[in-house]
Amino acid sequence: MEHEPFKTWLVDRSGLNSDENEILDDHLAVCPECAATALKIQNLDKILGNKNHFTPSPGFTRRFLSTLPERREREQQRQVRKWMIGLGIALILNIILIITASIITRTTSTWLVNLAILYGNIDGFFQEISMIIHTASLVVPSSLWIAAVMMILAWGAVGVGLWMFAMRRIHILGVPDEK
Predict the structure, then answer these.
(1) C-alpha dist (Å) from residue 27 to 6, 15, 16, 159
(2) Structural domain contains residue 35
(3) Is residue 127 part of a domain?
(4) What range does the domain containing 173 cover?
(5) pTM exceeding 0.85
(6) Is 171 domain-assigned?
C-alpha cells in the first residue's frame, strides 16, 4: 500500500481540505502502520508543545538592525581591551623577568645591554635575509625560485627525518659509548 501522501499529510494537517482530511481518516482506520505513525506524531506534539510558536515582538527586526552598529563597536572595543590586557600582562612579565635576572646576576646594565644587542642581532638577521631575498628575486627568474624553494623544503624534510631517526634510535638504544 502507498503510504507517502498520507505520511506527508500526517506531519502537517493544517493545509488539508475537508475531502483530504476524510481520505486521511479513512486510511488511518485501515492502515495500522500509518495509524501508529499518527499516534507517534500526536505524542511528539504533546511532548514538544508544538502548538505554541513564539514570534518576536513587532518591530524586532528594525530594532535589531538599528542597534547592530553599536553592538559591533562594543565587540571591537572588547576585543581591543582584551588584546591590550594581554600585551600589558606580557610587558609586566618581561619587566619581572628583567628585574629577577638583574637581582640574580647583580649586573643590570650589562644584562640589559646584552638583551638589547640580542634583539638587535635578531632584527638585523631578518632584515638581511629579507634584503637578500628581495635582491635575489630581482635577479633570479621565478621558475628557478620555485625549484630552489622545493629543494630547500626537501632538504629540510630530509633533515627533520634524520633528526627524528636519530632521536628515536637514542631513545631506544640509549646514547652510544665513546671509546
Answers:
(1) 8, 18, 14, 75
(2) yes
(3) no
(4) 141-179
(5) no
(6) yes
Kindly report, residue by residue over 161-176, the tens digit of the pLDDT: 998 998 888 888 776 6
Q: What is the pLDDT of residue 45?
A: 76
How many structural domains is the chain composed of? Answer: 2
Measured CA to CA, the distance from residue 145 to residue 151 in angstroms comes to 10
Please give the distance of CA 55 from its chain centroid, rounded to a whole number. Answer: 33
Residue 151 CB: number of other CB atoms within 10 A?
A: 10
Residue 54 has which C-alpha cell? 513564539
Domain assignment of residue 126, yes or no? no
Helix (H, G, I), strand (E, B) or coil at 57: coil
Q: Which three cell numbers stand for residue 64?
A: 535589531
Return d(Cα 175, Cα 141) in angstroms, integer: 46
82: confidence class by pLDDT, cuts 50, 70, 90: very high
Please check the confidence at residue 50 and state whether its pLDDT lies above 60.
no
Distance between CA 127 and CA 26 in Å, rounded?
85
Residue 165's alpha-carbon distances to 3, 18, 151, in angstroms, are: 65, 79, 21
In terms of Cα–Cα distance, which of 50, 35, 49, 39 is closest to 1?
Answer: 35
One-letter amino acid for residue 138 of the chain: L
Asked whether the beta carbons of 31 and 6 are under 8 A apart, the reply is: yes
